[in-house]
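Team,

Forwarding the record for the chain on the shared tracking sheet. I've put the sequence and predicted structure together so nobody has to dig through attachments.
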Amino acid sequence: MGKLIMWNLVTIDGFFEGKNKWELDWHEYAWGEELEHFSIEQLKSADMLIFGNVTYTGMANYWTTAEGEIANLMNSIPKVVISDTPITVVWNNTKIISHNVVEEITKLKELSAKDIYVFGSAILCDTLIKNNLFDEYRICVTPVLLGERTPLFKPQPKKLRMELLWTKTLKTGAVILCYKPL
């Protein structure tokens, strides 16, 4: 069975996007050869990518026209969009799940031989956290403060303890943290 892994970049103050949806210009403060290599290795270990509706739309708009090794991997890996509103599929290898999200993702985990990643998708991540579906949280803390923006983590009804599995410090000053829930 594959692991369900959250992968996100966040600012030091805990935000995953700027004032507007898909405002990610601050990612450049973490980006470099090391994060590129890490991204390629993660994608090579992926059986599937899962997105919420907004993240899917932004990712599809970017990756369907991008070039290079990461683009090739992003475009070839099967994708699942979690959306209860109608969505136009524009990215190859995409399936839509609109009902019974927790049950469907649980099935995907059981059938997967490799890892499944959730990128961005804070609303979807909140649902997955509340249902204890993540096996790992991989967070790249980026050396920037944005102030009041969109937080990655929403208030939770209960405390969720984590165990640190590993860290990786990048030359850019960003730090990748990998946790598993206890």
